[in-house]
């Protein structure tokens, strides 16, 4: 309102109706500017999301792509090989089929970004070229670290800020702290659930249509003619 009066001093003294009109005009102009700002921020956010999604699809970890079907792959895994994955989380990650099956399980929990980030970090540490390392570091940051990225991993603020500071001159170990946190999360949280999941149990043939359920032999209690307790082995 004050701006309008400054530009048009002849309106310093206005009738009530005229003053109401100019106030309404000023409010509408302010609301229009706010809507434009919100629209601009929304477009920037959408453009950022599309960029990150493009980078994700163009990444090199095809074996953990969320769009890749893995049913055929898991059907070719022997139960004996799959049983070795239960020895340790490290054993699982050291096996290509194990990583693929684990990624399939994480997709059912909408947390496949964890294994993808871990693999991306493993690849990053093998890069010798500074130019390629810088490019890969920016890719990892845009897809997995930056706030509101499509596949943002769950790490603490201090770790995220430390990575951000290293982006101009990324070192070989700049993602190491974040990678260890994600690794620990998968090992303590996702891995135990994976071992009890239908995906894993179906491969090991301990659960599923047409499969045999293996149970440990137990002892059951029966009573003899004198009412005494007698234990007998059960065929469970």
TrEMBL record:
The keyword Hydrolase is annotated on this UniProt entry: no
Domain RGS: from-to ranges: 88-204
Keyword Membrane attributed: no
Annotated InterPro entries: RGS (IPR016137), RGS_sf (IPR036305), RGS_subdomain_2 (IPR044926)
Annotated PANTHER family: REGULATOR OF G PROTEIN SIGNALING (PTHR10845), REGULATOR OF G-PROTEIN SIGNALING 18 (PTHR10845:SF155)
Keywords on record: Signal transduction inhibitor
Protein name: Regulator of G-protein signaling 18
